[in-house]
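User: tokens in, sequence out, please.
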């Protein structure tokens, strides 16, 4: 093992979206539309957090940026892309959707995403007929683990040469992504991890057996130092 050179396959930045109206307690406001309640946009504070996240990641030349098809992640990812040194496409990966979506909410239309980011596209090889959101009526804990595995498998099948990838998702679903990378299969462990708005988790994935410290290395979890 000592003589094997570590082969980095993927440098993954998991980012929770910045503060949304839902996080700020506006989701029960009677004047909000159904879309605003189920798919809230960023607050002014959230927009500022997204800007700071973009500035923080300016020095990281990202090879690709992904987000769920929800407004708050699209807004956050768009701000991050805006601080990159070269133009980046925003890849919409519906698998990154938050948990707890009510069955009556079917998600926003793609043209609404384009209004936020004209360079947004549906991620490569994703069926255009696939759901944009995943409701909690059809997904239990095992189902969420399965979706997390599918999302990670998608990323690893498309990037394996040390690329730097930003993934903007949601607090609860990021927890499942992290637990999956920790080796949990279909049941959450007896501990939890808090992911703050605009918190960044950096994970480096190595080719199996080439890194003596493990194939999955967590460099930091929920870093919010850039917000202070």
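Assistant: Sequence out:
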């Amino acid at each position: 093992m000592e003589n094997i050179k570590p082969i980095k396959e993927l440098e993954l930045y998991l980012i929770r979206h910045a503060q949304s109206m839902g996080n700020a307690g506006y989701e029960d406001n009677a004047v909000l539309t159904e879309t605003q309640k189920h798919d809230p946009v960023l607050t002014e504070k959230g927009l500022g957090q997204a800007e700071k996240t973009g500035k923080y990641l300016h020095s990281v030349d990202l090879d690709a940026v992904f987000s769920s098809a929800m407004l708050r992640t699209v807004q956050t990812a768009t701000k991050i892309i805006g601080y990159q040194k070269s133009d980046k496409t925003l890849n919409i990966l519906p698998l990154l959707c938050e948990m707890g979506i009510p069955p009556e909410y079917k998600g926003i239309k793609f043209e609404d995403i384009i209004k936020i980011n004209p360079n947004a596209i549906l991620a490569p090889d994703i069926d255009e007929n696939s759901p944009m959101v995943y409701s909690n009526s059809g997904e239990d804990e095992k189902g969420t683990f399965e979706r997390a595995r599918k999302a990670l498998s998608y990323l690893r099948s498309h990037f394996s040469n040390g690329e730097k990838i930003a993934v903007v998702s949601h607090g609860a679903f990021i927890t499942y992504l992290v637990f999956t990378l920790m080796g949990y299969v279909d049941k959450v462990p007896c501990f939890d991890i808090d992911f703050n708005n605009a918190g960044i988790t950096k994970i480096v994935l190595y080719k199996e057996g080439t890194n003596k410290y493990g194939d999955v290395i967590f460099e930091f979890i929920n870093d919010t130092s850039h917000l202070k």
